[in-house]
Amino acid sequence: MRFYAVAKQPRHFNHFYPAVPVVIGVEARGRVNFMPAVWNLGLSFDPPLFGVGVSPKRFTHGLLEEASAFGVTFHPFEQAGLVQRLGSLSGREVDKVAAFGLEVVRGRALDVPLLDGFYAAYELEKTDALATGDHTLFVGRVRGIWEDPDAFAGETLNPVRVRALLYYGRYRYGHPAPEVRELGEK
Questions:
Q1: Is the dihedral of CA 67, 105, 79, 165 positive or negative?
Q2: pLDDT per position in the chain (186 positions), as tens?
Q3: Beta strands 69-74 and 120-132: pairing type?
Q4: What are the backbone dihedrals phi and psi of residue 51, each rounded to the nearest 5 degrees, phi first?
């Protein structure tokens, strides 16, 4: 084990990976755009809040600032290549929907774009945007949830049926093993 003090920035900052990326779907200025975000998290159960961290350098950041709602989708490992491509090109330079021939699902609770092929998705009413260093945390209240019933065993993802996409950092993707251990009481 080695230690180093951090004066300004660490050598790398991905010790909390692997993480499940989501694909943010947002529409503003007449444009639909999709961007993967690994910095995402559930923030509250009551009310149900979910957040995504986005750098102001990203085209999606400006769209999220203008939009009143956005969607996030969770994709299986088999779509890792697509998720990587979505993060490799900027919506400033290309219309990703047209360029990649993406299929867009429209939200039902909110009129938000969702990238097809997901095993779960949230429709989020934007409630806050908090500057947090070099990223903004966009917070949304969950107004709609989509889930593939075959992907879940009760209330949890079934890793035998769906290989959830994991991001390890530095363009490396994987999936969890199908082994599950239930520890503690239900």
A1: positive
A2: 989 899 888 888 888 899 999 999 999 999 999 999 999 999 999 999 999 999 999 999 999 999 999 999 999 999 999 999 999 999 999 999 999 999 999 999 999 999 999 999 999 999 999 999 999 999 999 999 999 999 999 899 999 999 999 999 989 999 998 888 888 876
A3: antiparallel
A4: -130, 150
Q: Could you give the domains of the chain?
A: 22-170 (2.30.110.10)
- Closest listed residue to residue 20, CA positions, set 141, 163, 183, 170: 163
Is the separation of the CB atoms in 39 and 135 below 8 Å?
A: yes
User: C-alpha dihedral over 103, 177, 155, 121, to 10 degrees?
Assistant: -20
Q: What is the pTM of this model?
A: 0.95
On the 0-12 / 13-18 / 19+ scale of CB atoms within 10 A, 121 is buried
Q: Which residues of 129-162 are buried (b: 16+ CB within 10 A; e: fewer)?
A: eeeeeebbbbbbbbbbebeeeebeeeeebebeeb
DSSP string across 115-132: ESS-SEEEEEEEEEEEEE
